Amino acid sequence: MAELLKIQSEVEEFLKEYVYRNSQAEENRQTESQAATRIQSWFRACKVRAYLSHLHKKAIIIQKIWRGFTARARFRQMVKAAYFIMKMNFYEEMAVRIQRRWRGFFVRKYIHNFYARKNYLDGLSRKNELVRRELDELEELQKKERDCLEMVKEQTTKFYKAHRLHHLLSTKQCPGVFNSPFRPSPHEMEQLLRQVKYQAPTRLAPRGRACLLGMPGPATSSFHGTLESPWMKNSKICCSSRLILPPIASKKQQGLFREPGEVWEQRVHCPDLTVHLQTSRSHLEEAQSQLRQQESMRLHRGTL
To answer: What is the number of other CB atoms lying within 10 angstroms of the CB of residue 162?
Structure first.
C-alpha cells in the first residue's frame, strides 16, 4: 500500500513536471517563431526594397532615354521648320527681285517711254522758266505802278499843302517862313508856293475821308503842277468854282468809248499764269496753244 501511494505520488509529480516542461517548450517555441517571423519579415522587406530601388533605377534610365529621344526629335523638327521658313523667305525675296526687275523693264519699255517723258519734262521746265519770267515782269510792273501811285499821292499832298499854306508865300517886303535868309537857296515848300496860284474858295468842302487823309476832295480846286497817272481812272478834278452835278449812272455813252483807266488796265492786263503738273504728254502743246489764244484775245481787246 505504501508502495502504491509512493508510485501515485511519483506519477503526479511526473505529470506536473511534464506539464511544466511542455509549457516551457511551448513558450520557447513561440518566442523562437516570433523571432524567425521577424527575421523573415526584415529580410523580405530588405529584398523588396532592393528590388524596388532596382526597378526605380531602371525606370529612371528608361525615362531618361525616352525624354532624350523625344527632345532630339522635337529639336530636329524645329530645325527643319526654321530651315524651311528661311528657305521660303529667301525664295520669296528672290521672286520679289525678279518681279521688280521684270516690271521695271516692262513699264519702261511698253508703258512709259523714257525719251518722251524726258522731252515732256524738258518742255515743262522751259514753260516754268517762261512763266517765272512773265511773273517777274508782272511783279516789276506792279511795283512800278505802286511807286508811281505813291509819287502821285505824295506830290498831290504837297501841292494841296502848298495851296493851304499859300498865305505864307514870301514877298519883297516880308520874307516868308520857308524863305529864310540864312539858307543858300529857297526851301522846296517855297518853290511849291510860288507855283501854286491862290483861288478863293466858293464853298466849304465836306470833311470826308479824303480830307481826313490829307487829300483834296472832289469839290476842291485843282492845283498847277500836279501829276497824273494813267492808272488812275478818275484823275481829272474840276477846276471851276461852280457846283458839280452828279454823274448820270443809269445811261452809258454811245459808241466804242471807254474810260482811259479801263483801257490802260486792259493794256497792262496779264493772263492768269498757272502751272499745272499733269501726266499727259500733250499738256505742253495745249498750254502753248492756250497762251497763243490768250495773246490774240488780248491784242484784239487792245485794238478795240
So the answer is: 23
